[in-house]
Amino acid sequence: MTALPQTASVRARVPVTLHRATGRPAELVTFHGLPDAQEHLACVLPYAPQAVPLVRLHSECLTGDVLGSARCDCGPQLDEALTALADEGGVLLYLRQEGRGIGLYNKLDTYVLQDQDIDTFSANRIIGRGEDERDYRSAAAMLRALGLTRIRLLTNNPDKVAQLRDLGIRVEAVLPTGVHLTDENARYLSAKARTGHTLALLKGASA
Ligand SMILES: Nc1nc2c(ncn2[C@@H]2O[C@H](COP(=O)(O)OP(=O)(O)OP(=O)(O)O)[C@@H](O)[C@H]2O)c(=O)[nH]1
Ligand SMILES: [Zn+2]
């Protein structure tokens, strides 16, 4: 097991009503002492005290999450997670890992390359960055600060599961997200499927 993340603690809990979670009351939680010193955010929707809660680790995608860009599946995945969490409660970790960790401007540079028929992972390498620079040490530290060491994780990304387990979080179930396939994001999703994401890329498999 990797060295446990340094101890983080809750800084503030802020009540908020979330329209994107069907108007449910939620709590936004900030932290002290996260390993990478980014302003990651937890969004907690009330869950039963004895439950092993549903958790989604969502990596920031300003273009998809905020602007609704059709180039990727991030916006629909965020909506899907918030809807599921509104149903049964749980926690969304909104991780400031824009562009799989390379940042917004670099991601947009890779979009220029992708428009010349280079896939998303190769495009990262061409600009001198890793294919996926994310790690989940802060996510594990946030979960611990929230008192969560047993979770059910909503993801198609085996690396999230492996890293969290390595960091001492008991991932007791892995629940796939829907496949939000469109003509515009098909190449992006194919590249994800080729690099280990569990995605059944049949149009309309699940929306
Ligand atoms: N570098 C780069 N990052 C991208 C691109 N499209 C989306 N992203 C980023 O990818 C991250 C989301 O990762 P995904 O690979 O879509 O999904 P995941 O988080 O690995 O897996 P799931 O849990 O199954 O959703 C976000 O940080 C997005 O900003 C792209 O073309 N290039
Ligand atoms: Zn995206």
For CATH, the homologous superfamily is named as GTP cyclohydrolase II
State the share of residues found in helices, binned by percent. Answer: 25-40%
Counting DSSP E segments of at least 2 residues, the number of strands comes to 7
Shape: globular
Protein name: GTP cyclohydrolase II
Keywords: GTP-binding, Hydrolase, Metal-binding, Nucleotide-binding, Riboflavin biosynthesis, Zinc
Pathway: Cofactor biosynthesis; riboflavin biosynthesis; 5-amino-6-(D-ribitylamino)uracil from GTP: step 1/4
GO biological process, one term: riboflavin biosynthetic process
Protein traits:
single chain, 207 residues, alpha/beta, Rossmann fold, 23% strand, globular, disordered C terminus, binds guanosine-5'-triphosphate, binds zinc ion, hydrolase, RibA, GTP_cyclohydro_II
Written description of the protein model:
- Residues 17-173 form the GTP cyclohydrolase II domain.
- With 207 residues, the protein is an alpha/beta fold.
- It has a single domain, classed as GTP cyclohydrolase II (Rossmann fold), CATH 3.40.50.
- The protein has helices at residues 62-66, 74-88, 104-114, 120-126, 137-145, 158-166, 186-194, and strands spanning 9-18, 24-32, 41-45, 54-59, 90-95, 150-154, 170-175.
- Strands 1-2-3-5-4-6-7 form a seven-stranded mixed beta sheet, with helices on both faces.
- Strand 1 and strand 2 form a beta hairpin.
- Helix 3 (104-114) crosses helix 4.
- The longest helix has 15 residues, at 74-88.
- It is globular and about 50 Å long.
- Residues 202-207 have low confidence and may be disordered.
- It binds guanosine-5'-triphosphate and zinc ion.
- Guanosine-5'-triphosphate binds next to helix 2, helix 3, helix 4 and helix 7.
